[in-house]
Amino acid sequence: xxxxxxxxxxxxxxxxxxxxxxxxxxxxxxxxxxxxxxxxxxxxxxxxxxxxxxxxxxxxxxxxxxxxxxxxxxxxxxxxxxxxxxxx
Amino acid sequence: xxxxxxxxxxxxxxxxxxxxxxxxxxxxxxxxxxxxxxxxxxxxxxxxxxxxxxxxxxxxxxxxxxxxxxxxxxxxxxxxxxxxxxxxxxxxxxxxxxxxxxxxxxxxxxxxxxxxxxxxxxxxxxxxxxxxxxxxxxxxxxxxxxxxxxxxxxxxxxxxxxxxxxxxxxxxxxxxxxxxxxxxxxxxxxxxxxxxxxxxxxxxxxxxxxxxxxxxxxxxxxxxxxxxxxxxxxxxxxxxxxxxxxxxxxxxxxxxxxxxxxxxxxxxxxxxxxxxxxxxxxxxxxxxxxxxxxxxxxxxxxxxxxxxxxxxxxxxxxxxxxxxxxxxxxxxxxxxxxxxxxxxxxxxxxxxxxxxxxxxxxxxxxxxxxxxxxxxxxxxxxxxxxxxxxxxxxxxxxxxxxxxxxxxxxxxxxxxxxxxxxxxxxxxxxxxxxxxxxxxxxxxxxxxxxxxxxxxxxxxxxxxxxxxxxxxxxxxxxxxxxxxxxxxxxxxxxxxxxxxxxxxxxxxxxxxxxxxxxxxxxxxxxxxxxxxxxxxxxxxxxxxxxxxxxxxxxxxxxxxxxxxxxxxxxxxxxxxxxxxxxxxxxxxxxxxxxxxxxxxxxxxxxxxxxxxxxxxxxxxxxxxxxxxxxxxxxxxxxxxxxxxxxxxxxxxxxxxxxxxxxxxxxxxxxxxxxxxxxxxxxxxxxxxxxxxxxxxxxxxxxxxxxxxxxxxxxxxxxxxxxxxxxxxxxxxxxxxxxxxxxxxxxxxxxxxxxxxxxxxxxxxxxxxxxxxxxxxxxxxxxxxxxxxxxxxxxxxxxxxxxxxxxxxxxxxxxxxxxxxxxxxxxxxxxxxxxxxxxxxxxxxxxxxxxxxxxxxxxxxxxxxxxxxxxxxxxxxxxxxxxxxxxxxxxxxxxxxxxxxxxxxxxxxxxxxxxxxxxxxxxxxxxxxxxxxxxxxxxxxxxxxxxxxxxxxxxxxxxxxxxxxxxxxxxxxxxxxxxxxx
Lengths: 88, 981
Fold this sequence. Notes:
Strand order of the largest sheet of chain A: 3-4-5-6
Oligomer: heterodimer
CATH architecture of chain A: 2-Layer Sandwich
CATH class of chain A: Alpha Beta
Distance between the termini of chain A: 30 Å
CATH superfamily of chain A: Folate-binding superfamily
Structural class of chain A: mainly beta
């Protein structure tokens, strides 16, 4: 079980969080997206052996959505930040 | 052999003043405090303890601790599911144990005939057999013959287990010489230390020999140091506890058996350790030759341990068979205890001089091997032969002590993805590179010299503490007494026995050397494949005494080295752990408590049968009158709503308050239809989809004011909808100004529905105009009702005129009681979810998880009107468009009327073409006895259904085909006049 460092709450046990899978590229507006690009966006999430950017929700804590950089091989957490500050 | 004969007159770390009576296979025996079940059985001369898993061969006690592969027992009573070997069960008063895999007793087992057919049960037997057509004919017999301990008939009370969470700087696994030193060094440095050992007695191997440490006996040294640690405030020592999992981020899982609280049987710790010192010791290996599983064949270290620890003589005439130096001490100690040692058979051509000196006076047959053990239910002798040349002879003995060398206990290191390397010098896999937070020490690291073991423990403890910010920890490493150096020459299998179907490499799963060779011949060369094909190492002992021999035999067979073969993956748990130990008291409603509305006590008092309504909410299913059946009650409740007025507790319906400048933008993104034209006080029904363009939820959203909305969701999906909206806002549109507040349980409602609902509401003295013009369908008003501040919504899930009267939770029960009181004049009836279901099916309203089952979009349900043609964007839009552009035929919502109007259709029953046994073309999503139609009506999803209205379709169930007429999916008031009335 992982320990994730929530920017609000500090180090917390994984059981307080919900993992929502790999973080996708920023959502395209439909007007700008071809069908093929949209299908890729929906169905081809990154699944690397190594560092992956993931969305986690601190559902049993502050409710913040987080972007977590996790190594799928070692479970090392390289970075955790609030998703809303992802593109600051 | 009587008890007095097998138990030495003195010595041992047992308390002879505390005799304990126990039973084994129904017979009464006596042992002493400090015994294990195994040592007590040996002291009583019980050698045959069970039958093996596959061939039902007689088996005895092989090991001393958890590594024992052969003596799993069934315990009577609450702890019956333990599945531990007798060697790992501390003796206690009244213990009642039974052998497994045999009936009626290990001596007379009716399945023993399977030994005769051993050649018919080769490696991969189950794979090969279960591929036959009709293999299941054999399944019951195989299941009866196989299996280990039985599941106990009754669950243990959940108070018997406890879960604790803990944190420490340094966790030390094992309280042997290395572990004690590590804990001492780390504790002296000031670190918070947890020291865990499976044995109640500290010292590990120090208790099982006669070496000295620091000028005193090793056992006394260990006891003194443990006492010193116990006195330190920063040390927690868990005795009789096993670390059975080592997971990411320093999480280790520990189960204490028999913690110091009488009502507690076990306690599991989820411990976060910043650094972990693994000083788990090493496990002796078996040697592989014909019939090496006969009762009386024992690991050499185990025999020596029983002698020193429990003062038990495990035999009268012993023979030692070894490939290394360590077993010589066993021979010496057995002889010193008065046991005749027939010989030491050493597979090495030239045993080291130090070993020979240890066993001075005992015949050593160097360059010899045991090729065969004789006897059936008890060892009677062995055949010994030189490795080269001729000269086999038989030697009588009733105890055969084996030592195939030592395997470091690397399980916890490997669970944390530590890598191993094969060490030629010790012929074992030893820790190589591992996680930075983990240190191995002592023989777990591959060190077998006691002085080096003590030093490595101190060093590991000191370094672990330093990495936690605690400098110091310089402790003096005591001087260990002299002992011969460890030397070994690998012997994975006695050459002459390589093809034997009775030379066991895995005693627990009955895997033989011949099975390994067969697996290689059939194309399995990788160790992971061989493991699965032969099941070697897949028992609950995880092959602790045999896996290295499997690797060695495999390497020899495929012409490579053990280093190239490598090991299989080590997985938790290290030893059998009960589900109760993992779950603790977290089961049933302790794990997932029910949620109640404030009206629950009223419902229960009025005879409601309570259902779970989703998201753990409890809601009335129906309110049967005395003697009334389910069907009658549901019909009565449904009729009341259609003809007079009913009231239901709709409080669990999900509610999310939405605020902010961009609130409308979010709602427009979430729903398929448009909300821009909604005025304050007005509401609109909406459907939301997933990004895959499939229906995720539905509900009514009201506009409360400028930039302020109240969204309702289905009961079960309230949390999921909130999560999806939050995710979208925070991850995709962080610049939007929207705040979401889930308010489901802040509100309580009584929903009054039926033709008399308005008259009833009028009787509750609302302070607003409630006529249809002033308060139309799909609108919302704040008001005072029955003296309570309320928010009334005109929505309808029943198809009738409805008012959903919402009040603060604290007023919920008062509102309900006033509604019932005022309603008596209108013959009001409380209505449960069963009647609600009937009413919504009659009306053809969709229900999440019934019609919207995760495969449907709005068009499939005949609700194309709810998909906006003008909105640029909403969630699911593009995926639905792409899918529908293919023109593939879809399953569409239809009504289904069975030709026999009284014939109920099972919900979820398949529709197949012509009722034939073919691929389904749909399913029944709901079926009820309609009070409006006075017949059975159903909804279903049917391929191309809307084009087939008027045709006959067929529901196929077991032994029956039910003809149904396909209709439009609305059986009541299709124009919605009543709900708008």
